Amino acid sequence: MKYINRYVIAVFLISFCIACGGSKQDKDSVEANNITQNEILEGKNLIAKSDCMGCHKEDGKLVGPSYLEIANYYEANEKNVEMLAVKIVKGGQGAWGSIPMAPHPTVSEQDAQKMTKYILSLKK
After folding, report:
1. Which end of the chain is more exposed for a tag (fewer CB within 10 A), N or C?
2. Helix (H, G, I), strand (E, B) or coil at 71
3. Gap between the Cα atoms of 62 and 52, Å rounded
4. What is the per-residue pLDDT across 44-92, written as a single tens digit (0 to 9) for each?
5. How many Cβ atoms are within 10 Å of 73's Cβ, its own excluded?
6. What's the DSSP call for residue 64?
7. Between the CA of residue 42 and those of 9, 35, 39, 93, 105, what are the distances in Å?
8. 3-state secondary structure (DSSP) of residue 28
9. What is the pLDDT at residue 1?
């Protein structure tokens, strides 16, 4: 029941969280990690069309960590891109606190990787 309530809250928040903010990206860092500008833009657009903004913001904690916190914690490499993409698809719990991240089984692993590459490109 408590997970259903969190889901309802997340859906409610989504209706109010439409915009996805811009960011500065370090081109050398992005290119060094084989993340293309096209993948970053695709990932940003995928996030904007998803329910992610119901729990995450780019630069501040909401229900889950901000994308900037995630980017500053994980190095932008293939291993982390794959691991985080799996968490987007299958969900997870414990890495950032006790509130679980809901699974997103309708998101393909390829799209989840693009979303992850966008998030990791935000590192400052």
Report:
1. N
2. helix
3. 11
4. 999 999 999 999 999 999 999 999 999 999 999 999 999 999 999 999 9
5. 13
6. S
7. 27, 11, 5, 26, 19
8. helix
9. 53
